[in-house]
Design brief:
- The protein has 24 helices and 3 strands.
- The chain has about 700 residues and is an all-alpha fold.
- The protein has a domain of about 280 residues.
- α5 runs antiparallel to α6.
- InterPro entries: Cation/H_exchanger_CPA1, Cation/H_exchanger_TM, NaH_exchanger, NHE-1-like, NHE_CaM-bd.
- GO terms for molecular function: calmodulin binding; potassium:proton antiporter activity; sodium:proton antiporter activity.
- It is found in: Basolateral cell membrane.
Length: about 700
């Protein structure tokens, strides 16, 4: 029923199925099975975590690792202690039924219920297709908070048996967090390296290659749980470490087997977990206390919202891409609880925790509320808030190459600045990986790089074999040499060859080879930073010379803009009479010379040092003097403006057009140029009008 599945998440439907199955079993008089913690932790949880760790999007995970760790560690600690403290206060004020519950029992309950569940988050977030950043933040938090949950759970469980808790016990409990988390990661890395090394020698037995991946991953989980370390952290570390080396060694069919078997296995586990949750709800013993259950639900929501708001305010001070209020709402709203909390509550024994049934009832209520209410409403809220969705299309090879290029560029910038950021350390890790680790863990030529040419030869050989098998060159005699085969006319081949369509897996393999080969970075011989660069003694002199050249060029450009036509040299009266005497006809006055426009030049700021000598072009006869014959010939004449004083030269006399309001700075071209816009200056109006 598509209309139902589009509204209700799959996890909710599975819980409903479990409730119905449990009710049916109870209705016929049988005892329904309960989800036992051993079955959950040993068989149902590992496939889901391995699937998540093996196919973890490593780049967004590492880029946001700081944010994820703050949410996972600080956020979970805040939730546990805030919730435990408030629930202790509720128990003290809640009447006779709750007075016997002590502080340690409430803190233990808070540590169980505070952790975000990876199974529930995966089930809901995979369906709403939220953008990669929000998905990795919430999902990464749900994966990494396992270490905090395990430590707090075992810590408070042990403290509950103590008569008195000392400061030394608290310090040891704090240190145990680092042992549990880092120990789990170390166990996972060791098994991941062993799995990668083993896959180097499986080229002759391809059938059992997928088995090694599952075997070593499960061994990592069991080894971590054996020593009370974080099994989830061990599985994630094992999957992340082994994947690049294992995929380089195993065959394509083995890769496909691992991919689909993990997806199928995790899907089956997820289905069983949610169905068992429904069945266990019907089958289990419950003790309902309104005050305790409602307070738990309310304080869970309050603690989550406050924790996300405060931590995001702190995180945004250091993030380049800030978390917006919409992002904060989705992170707070996506804190779903699930079967891990139920199983941890089920593990409590009656001897030390007589209130176990009430704890389980409150845990199931919180799980149902988060999965049903928040899980069902998060999709319409994402649409309502217009939160960015996940891009379904894969990035093109062009985008991936440019991403790699920018990584190398940022690494170089960090080296020059002497700043060791995460690009620098990522580059160091990649170099160490290529130089040493790949040679040990990857077999044959692939340890260097998968070669494009080798892949091309492989494709050519495959195509030739298919051609021979199809009978395309069956008529060629066996005695013909290789050279003569190349010279045979192509008419022997089929006229229309249908190119086989590439499967998605083959296309992905080609994309991977292209991605790792199309962008080769030039290895630098030595690293430079600002502390090792030697100062050039002539650098200051060169800088001064360049500045002088630049100023000279700018001044020359300004002068060219102002004086693109040279000023006409003013002749003396003797020279003017000599010119008229030599050629009277050339200097005969023209009829319309009185209607010529006046062009006046006014620098933008006459007081500025860049101002130039003022030029004036006037029509003949407008200056109060008789026009000279040479002016009649030349039309518009440029004259140097002399200072206006009683003893001015007889060639130029200041007129009415010299007032500051009429002087406008125009380009001094040989022709007046296009008519300026009205707002730029007054239009050219002939003097006579």
């Amino acid at each position: 029923i598509p209309s139902v599945s589009s509204i209700v998440p799959e996890s909710c439907l599975l819980i409903v199925v479990g409730l119905l199955v449990g009710g049916l079993i109870k209705g016929v008089g049988e005892k329904p099975p309960i989800l036992k913690s051993d079955i959950f932790f040993l068989f149902l949880l590992p496939p889901i975590i391995l699937d998540a760790g093996y196919f973890l999007p490593l780049r967004p995970f590492t880029e946001n690792l700081g944010t994820i760790l703050i949410f996972a560690v600080v956020g979970t600690l805040w939730n546990a202690f805030f919730l435990g403290g408030l629930m202790y206060a509720v128990c003290q004020l809640g009447g006779p039924g709750l007075n016997h519950i002590g502080l340690l029992a409430n803190l233990l309950f808070g540590s169980i219920i505070s952790a975000v569940d990876p199974v529930a988050v995966l089930a809901v977030f995979e369906e709403i297709h939220i953008n990669e950043l929000l998905h990795i933040l919430v999902f990464g938090e749900s994966l990494l908070n396992d270490a905090v949950t395990v430590v707090l759970y075992h810590l408070f469980e042990e403290f509950a048996n103590f008569e008195q808790v000392t400061i030394l016990d608290i310090i040891l409990g704090f240190l145990s967090f680092f042992v549990v988390s880092l120990g789990g990661v170390l166990v996972g890395v060791i098994y991941g390296v062993i799995a990668a090394f083993t896959s180097r020698f499986t080229s002759h037995i391809r059938v059992i290659e997928p088995l090694f991946v599952f075997l070593y991953s499960y061994m990592a989980y069991l080894s971590a749980e054996l020593f009370h370390l974080s099994g989830i952290m061990a599985l994630i570390a094992a999957g992340v470490v082994m994947r690049p080396y294992v995929e380089a060694n195993i065959s394509h069919k083995s890769h496909t087997t691992i991919k689909y078997f993990l997806k199928m296995w995790s899907s089956v586990s997820e289905t069983l977990i949610f169905i068992f949750l429904g069945v266990s709800t019907v089958a289990g013993h419950h003790y309902w206390n309104w005050t305790f259950v409602i307070s738990t639900l309310f304080f869970c929501l309050i603690a989550r919202v406050l924790g996300v708001l405060v931590l995001t305010w702190f995180i945004n001070k250091f993030r380049i891409v800030k978390l917006t209020p919409k992002d904060q709402f989705i992170i707070a709203y996506g804190g779903l609880r699930g079967a891990i909390a139920f199983s941890l509550g089920y593990l409590l024994d009656y001897e030390h925790f007589s209130m176990r049934d009430m704890f389980l009832t409150a845990i199931i209520t919180v799980i149902f509320f988060t999965v049903f209410v928040q899980g069902m409403t998060i999709r319409p809220l994402v649409d309502l808030l217009a939160v960015k969705k996940k891009q379904e299309t894969k990035r093109s090879i062009n985008e991936e190459i440019h991403t790699q290029f920018l990584d190398h560029l940022l690494t170089g910038i960090e080296d020059i600045c002497g700043h060791y950021g995460h690009h620098h350390w990522k580059d160091k890790l990649n170099r160490f990986n290529k130089k040493y680790v790949k040679k040990c863990l990857i077999a044959g030529e692939r340890s260097k790089e998968p070669q494009l040419i080798a892949f091309y030869h492989k494709m050519e050989m495959k195509q030739a074999i298919e051609l021979v098998e199809s009978g395309g060159i069956g008529k060629i005699p066996s005695a013909v040499s290789t050279v003569s085969i190349q010279n045979i006319n192509p008419q022997t081949l089929p006229l229309e060859r249908v190119l086989p369509a590439l499967s998605k897996d083959k296309e992905e393999e080609i994309r991977k080879i292209l991605r790792t080969n199309l962008q080769k970075t030039r290895q630098r011989l030595r690293s430079y930073n600002r502390h090792t660069l030697v100062a050039d003694p002539y650098e200051e002199a060169w800088n001064q010379m360049l500045l002088r050249r630049q100023k000279a060029r700018q001044l020359e450009q300004k002068m060219n803009n102002y004086l693109t036509v040279p000023a006409h040299r003013v002749d003396s009266p003797t020279m003017s009479r000599a010119r008229i005497g030599s050629d009277p006809l050339a200097y005969e006055p023209k009829e319309d010379s009185e209607n010529l426009p006046i062009i006046t030049i006014d620098p933008a700021s006459p007081q500025s040092p860049e101002s130039v000598d003022l030029m004036s072009e006037e029509p003949k006869g407008c200056s109060g003097l008789p026009p000279s014959p040479e002016e009649d010939e030349e039309g518009l004449v440029m004259r140097v403006k002399e200072p206006s004083s009683p003893g001015t030269d007889d060639v130029f006399t200041p007129g009415t057009s010299d007032s500051p309001s009429n002087q406008r700075m125009l380009r001094c071209l040989s022709d007046p140029g296009p008519r300026p816009e009205p707002e730029e200056g007054e239009p050219f109006i002939p003097k006579g009008q």
